[in-house]
Design goal:
Belongs to the L6 tetraspanin family. InterPro entries: L6_membrane (IPR008661). This is Transmembrane 4 L6 family member 1. It is found in: Membrane. One of its GO terms (cellular component) is membrane. This protein is 66% helix and 6% strand. It is mostly helical and 213 residues long. The chain has one domain. The chain has a three-stranded antiparallel β-sheet with strand order 2-1-3, with no helix packed on it. Strand 1 and strand 2 form a beta hairpin. Helix 1 runs antiparallel to helix 7 and helix 4 packs antiparallel against helix 5. The chain is elongated, with a radius of gyration of 22 Å.
Length: 213
Amino acid sequence: LPSPCRVTMCVGKCSRIVGPCLLALGTLSMAANILLLFPGGTWRYLAEGNISKDVKVMPGIWGGGIAVLVAATHITAVGWRSVFLTFCSLCCPQAFISAVLSKLALLGAATCFVLSGVGLTNGPFCFYNTTRHGTSWGYPFRDTGGQEPDARAENYLLDRRAWGICLEPAGVVVWNVVLFSLLLLISAAEMVLASLQILNGCLGCLCGFCEGK
């Protein structure tokens, strides 16, 4: 095989690995975000609107999910199509599209990462005992602007004893922390794989220009 075609085979092999991995991660991202919409495993709080604004944005669905799955589907198809391609120039257009879609996946994953971090920092929306107004719905672990930061908001991730302040939904703090942390890990992995595929796609484009040399 000519040298450019060897490169094409390597590009295709990488795509056949990255594509399915992104498909799995994108699916997990959507599943984690869907679970966040049902704190405590019940639909009642979603129907009543008593869920966090950070959850309502659904970064794991459109950012770490749909944007990544669109790219992953094309990447996987290109990877397996390269098995049957003989000429490197046939790979070039598909590699270029793969690189562009990978940039979209990288942007979606990065957005999911940032918004998940914000959701983890703000904490859950729950029914809790306030110091001024008795029990009410709100964000017990979020700092309020213009006021002295609440000690709970500064260390709630480290102090599990403070988690009991949320009365409803049951176990919402654990639910929020685990799933947002999972979204952070998933989106970080997606960013790494998408960046790798961008380089892989660029290499595939260069392969087309090398044909005949």
